[in-house]
Write a structure and sequence with these properties.
single chain; 147 residues; alpha/beta; RbsD-like fold; six-stranded mixed sheet; 5 helices; 17% strand
Length: 147
Amino acid sequence: MLKTLSVLHTPELLHALASMGHGDEVALVDCHFPAVSVAQRLVRLDGADLPAALAACLHLIPLDTFVDDAAVRMLQVHAPDEIPEVQLLCQQVIDAAESKPVKLVGISRQAFYERARKAYAVIATGEQRTYGCILIKKGVVLPAHTQ
């Protein structure tokens, strides 16, 4: 047991996040997403909803500040201009973790699937709300004396 970690910080999640480099992406997906067939590396967090899993990740890694799309959400096929509640909650998690507003960029379902296939890892959550799918790009963890 380690201090200050969430129960969602499983050994598999810790290993995946620590192994990622600057610019690598991780897809956090709902229970409807074909995670097993898409993932290069699969981390299962079946007991967690998407916002909790996202918060656990962003507790450990920063978003990439070198790009405009460090956080991406899947657009709804039937209503691309509407933002589902689960994605609004993720926006709050992202803004809190980064201590500033960070745009959660919408991309089509097919574009999301393509990026998820190339992602360093896919984190399969137990999120039951539809369109609970987010991609985040890892930034640089700066030494304490340079912040």
